[in-house]
Design brief:
The chain is mainly alpha-helical and about 110 residues long. Helix content is about 60%, strand content about 0%. It has one domain.
Length: about 110
């Protein structure tokens, strides 16, 4: 099971940012219309996977920012989510792979 999850994670990380951003809203709207079907359950899982990528990008950006501040000898302050969750999820070219999406919620709130 673990190997299957790792493979799934690799596939999700390779998806296009714009496509994931577009799909987030589609699946958010779908899960709001509860019907208890397998399709609804799959929509919830897909929505959560998309948001997992967003959360990963937020954590990545926060840690890159902390490192940059630490290298310059500045006082390292906690960053707010709004500072790191811009559309695109990246700041100042921190990422080069193009697999980022930001601004999503990943704390159980589908709105």
């Amino acid at each position: 099971m673990e190997k299957a999850l790792e493979k799934l994670a690799e596939q999700i990380l390779s998806f296009d940012e714009a496509s994931l951003t577009h799909l987030r809203e589609k699946y958010r709207l779908r899960i709001e219309k509860f019907d208890g079907t397998k399709d609804w359950e799959k929509a919830v899982i897909i929505y959560c996977m998309i948001n997992a990528v967003s959360m990963k990008n937020t954590l990545f950006n926060e840690n890159v920012l902390r490192r940059k501040k630490g290298e310059r000898g500045e006082i390292i302050e906690e960053t707010s989510e709004s500072e790191t969750s811009q559309v695109g999820g990246e700041r100042d070219g921190d990422r080069q792979d193009g697999n980022s999406i930001g601004g999503g919620r990943c704390r159980g709130d589908p709105h």
